Amino acid sequence: MAELNDLKKFDTFSLFSEDQLAEIAKITEKQTFKKGAQIYQEGDRANHIFLVTRGLVSMRKIAPGDTIGISFESREKGDLFGTACFMKPQEYTLNSVCMEDSEVMAIDADKLFELFQKYPEIGYKFMKEVAKIYFERYKIAKRQIHAMVKAPTIITALPG
Length: 160
Hints:
Blueprint: H1 4-8, H2 18-26, E1 28-33, E2 38-40, E3 48-54, E4 56-61, E5 70-76, E6 80-81, E7 95-98, E8 102-108, H3 109-118, H4 120-150
Antiparallel strand pairs: 1-8, 2-7, 3-6, 3-8, 4-5, 4-7
Helix pairs in contact: 3-4
């Protein structure tokens, strides 16, 4: 179980009352990982949502048989990841790899859903925070796509 004060340190939980934070703390545990450790793998059941409390976690796509993957994003202190637990089929879509020694708070997704059923206000507030995070990520992705399309590209084909 996480400490109430651990959750209070992060903006994601700033809207919650003491009682609400206490409920979330009951279903949250701290986990530590060494540099290079994988927190979860693409295709695993998304049974936790994570908050980075220390370190850096890379979100990657690695094709079967490849040793090098594409890093899509990184999560640092205060960032949530693993939100696939909120969407069917509740499977992680990327691999999460620690780029340095890291600590995360893992929130049990099934118990979080139960908490949302019992206290809809907590669910509303939490999902509102998740929506804000994803909207920011969407805006960043749009800017990146725009920059790629805007940059002049020369494509040449060789004969034969």
